[in-house]
Design a protein that fits this description.
3 helices, 28% helix, binds ligand GNR, two-stranded antiparallel ribbon
Length: 168
């Protein structure tokens, strides 16, 4: 099922997701719907927060072929490089806005898979950027909140304009 993606400005994007435990109902259905939503929107990642589900679950696929789905349940960054990297980020909740954000170059993530098993993954390149971006969503943060107030206000106005035009 394709789920509606909430846009920046919607207060649900500020909620902090709760941990998922082993007997969370229909977890596999949620995972399937999140992948369907992410692939149909042509995103490289999606956090449950963006579809108004306030649980700590993220789906990612940074492969060219769109055939390497990754699920991260209760993800945590357990190590990060001192080196930082700039990346032009976008977000399905902030359509048509791309801005440079600086984050650690590499991170090590600990999470659970769909069966509840713990794993760790060393992430670099787009995957490192994406998992940090998604964990921010689980904590109620959207990438544009790293920008200056001037840029943030311009983005808020642009989104309001997009929403007005979408209504007409
Ligand atoms: O599709 C997405 N692309 C992207 C590009 C650069 C940095 C982060 C991302 S994540 C984004 C999908 C999304 O909004 N995930 O929350
Ligand atoms: Ni996003």
């Amino acid at each position: 099922m394709i789920l509606p993606i909430r846009a920046f400005g919607d207060p649900v994007l500020r909620k902090v997701g709760k941990e998922i435990d082993k007997d969370y109902p229909s977890l596999q259905d949620l995972i399937d719907s999140m992948f369907e939503t992410m692939y149909s929107a042509k995103g490289v990642g999606l956090a449950a927060t963006q579809v108004d589900i306030h649980r700590r679950i993220v789906v990612v696929d940074t492969s060219e072929e769109r055939d390497q789905p990754l699920v991260f349940i209760n993800p945590e960054i357990v190590a990060q490089s001192v080196e930082q990297k700039e990346w032009e980020e976008g977000c399905l909740s902030v359509p048509e806005i791309y801005e440079t954000v600086t984050r650690p170059d590499r991170v090590r993530v600990r999470a659970q898979d769909a069966k509840g098993e713990f794993f760790e993954m060393a992430c670099d390149e787009l995957l490192a950027v994406c998992i940090q971006h998604e964990i921010d969503h689980l904590n109620g943060k959207v990438f544009v909140q790293y920008l200056s107030n001037l840029k943030l206000n311009r983005i808020k106005n642009k989104i309001k304009k997009q929403q007005r035009e979408a209504q007409q």
